[in-house]
């Protein structure tokens, strides 16, 4: 429960901080931190425009997408306190329930019969497929390291002590951060601020969504950021008492948002054709973590 | 015993009645015979699923010896799957075959072949006499052949049928070698003799098992023995494709599981062999499925993929047995067995909906379809449910079995050494990639066939079939949802089947420790939560939006306001980034004509996917063999004198060899002394 509340609070500020960081780096004052939430509230009040090509799939897809992310958030623990749903192998459920949302967002983009949205859908399907192995191998190595198979047990048994574990923690943070960027369609995979439909991934998929549905999709994006942020926080907090971890949670979330803003201010998006290789390379980083875990456990004998 | 007699008598009655009936009668007789037979066999099966073991000994004949029929929980599980798929398939087939009502005799043959197929599949599950097993196996192969070539006036259908027939017989050759081996060594056809033999000669068990494995892998469609499958499935009528994918290839899985129990080979080596070919099958199947444009061919390749997933379960289970890890064995086999049922459910549903699409449009090339969801919404929803289930996405059944296999793998990791850890991580990698690729494939299939605008104008009206045709489909969909939402209840039916396997490590345990499946309880809560959340949010959204006025406009065209349907994304363009990345594994023939010049002619672009393994393993050897044989073409020169000469040579040698018999023997003796 604690974890859900913290994630919800973080979600309110996260995107605002990214936007603010970017505007400060580009020399503008920028909108207030709560602007994204205000946008969403405005959208929730509006009526929608639907494409004449679309069917009911287009109308239920944002709902399913939103629900899937909420379900995934319920699984995430916060240090010692379990998520609302917690069982052995819950990270498998986490990944697959997110896939449900992706499935629906892809078919809803295809439902419009537009060539732009098809482009985005095709890319989304391919990239999210490549990102998944990295996550599963990462969780597999953490499971191997700790001897548990649920998020909460893994994270509370994770002790960062020796040099190798420092390396592993950094690599794991990198992998999770990159997965978060891919899942949220941010740089360096996707540029949310591009003006050309041909070079978008996520933005082009939701071109035809409007009103309440668009609000749901945007909210889902904010939630997803906070969710992955919470996962990364969990790597570090372990058994530290709440008095320290709750501020730490917000500090790490803030740092992450700041970092994303910085990256997006100073980096260009990858060429579309190179994205797949880059994402699949993440899998090899995860494999590194896996071999590191084997090394720690002394199985290289 | 009476049940078995009634079973056979009903079958005979069906054979006699069907040819003399009117068209409607044929269908009713065929369906009712299968219904009664299914009820009879399910009655026995349900008893056995609860843990009983039934044994009937038929007298047999001088040649076959006694014919033992043994039903245990493993046979029972497969019998129930077969019965379920046959009942829904046959019921659906009744409406599907109406389109062919002119071909009366053909339908009679079809109905009779259906009865034989059902009877032979059921008997394969229970017969434990290798001689009679082979007869039943042949009965299954031949009747399936007749069912596949229903539309035999098409060349492609006949070709696919013959391809299937030949490969089935290669499988029979391997079975025969293994059975003859045992018969020579032990002088008995009983399966118990196999167990007795392998206990005495343990090193030979693995070799024997490999013969069985190849035979059953051809039937199940493991890569590289899969090449018959993508031809046979599209050629057959839709209900037959569903049955083939649902149960015929599953009998291969049954065979492998049965032989694991009977042969008891070295479980660890066997486990790794099965694991490796399964991961390859799973990946290769789905990789080729993505580039297919024929809807049924796409589904056929997915069968290979799912056989791979089942195989991964069996492989992990075996390794669990080998390393005395009951938890691992239980999870692996439970995952494999549940996925067998799950695949039978969603794959038959997919084939039936594909059949409905075919009958509505007379076209299976997905590049010609589109926008069907508006004309046939019920079919679209059924297809969508099955598509989500096959990708292993919650809240449907595919997730449950894949979850069991994953938890098996992660459990195993806790005790694994270096080599097995690497094996696990690559299996997990394979399984995840399979899931992701399946999602790519089914988002493509669903959205190109059902969403967007129609890509081709059909001259006839496209409409939803009557409810009666959709009824069996709804029934299957109900099961898909139920297994997803109440997994624990379904897994309990499996407990005795899993126990059969785990008894190999701890024979004293006669109730399966259901604790390992207790994890399914929170999953089912999570599933309910997910469904509830979606439903609540859906109604909340509906309530909020009810007062607002939505407007309907064309899709965003980037300010271009004369879009045509040709601007839509096609299946080919949807998978283009994938195709470019995976080019080393794929084989694509491309015919391309560009536009050029001031007055360009019509351009066209055509791709034709082919199977690389088929080319290297089947086509090239056959080509080489043909060119070798063509060197002897001079013998067949069409001149009568030569043929008479061959005859004379043959007769002379027949007469002369006995004359020189003594000398020949002496010569052989002489050779032996050297």
Structure explained in plain terms:
The complex is a heterodimer of chains A (301) and B (674). Chain A is mostly helical and 301 residues long. Chain A has one domain. Chain A is built from eleven helices and one strand, in the order H-H-E-H-H-H-H-H-H-H-H-H. Chain A has helices at residues 2-25, 35-45, 56-75, 90-110, 115-146, 151-157, 163-183, 202-205, 211-237, 242-266, 272-296, and one strand spanning 49-51. The longest helix of chain A is centred in the middle third of the chain and has 32 residues, at 115-146. Chain B is built from 26 helices and five strands. The mean pLDDT of chain B is 88. In chain B, strand 1 and strand 2 (65-71) form a beta hairpin. Chain B is mainly alpha-helical. Chain B is globular, with a radius of gyration of 28 Å. In chain B, helix 5 packs antiparallel against helix 10, helix 6 crosses helix 9 and helix 9 (229-235) runs antiparallel to helix 10. Chain B has a domain at 637-673. Classes of the chains: A mainly alpha (301), B mainly alpha (674). The interface between A and B is large, with 81 and 83 residues. Strand 1 (49-51) of chain A pairs parallel with strand 3 (551-553) of chain B.
Average per-residue pLDDT of chain A, rounded, comes to 86
Largest sheet of chain A: none
The coarse silhouette of chain B is: globular
Which value, in Å, is the CA radius of gyration of chain A?
Answer: 19 Å
Proportion of residues in helical segments of chain A:
over 70%
Oligomeric state of this protein: heterodimer
Shape of chain A: globular
C-alpha Rg of chain B, in Å?
28 Å
What percent of residues of chain A are in strands? under 5%
What is the end-to-end distance of chain A?
43 Å
Q: What is the CA-CA span between the terminal residues of chain B?
A: 61 Å
**Mean pLDDT reading of chain B:** 88
| Low-confidence runs of at least 5 consecutive residues of chain A | none
Given helix and strand content, the structural type of chain A is mainly alpha
Unreliable segments of chain B (pLDDT under 50, ≥5 consecutive)? none
Largest sheet of chain B: 2 strands, antiparallel
How many beta-strand runs of chain A? 1
**Domains counted in the coordinates of chain A: how many?**
1
Strand proportion of chain B, as a percent range, falls in: under 5%
| Helix-strand pattern of chain A | HHEHHHHHHHHH
Major β-sheet strand ordering of chain B: 1-2
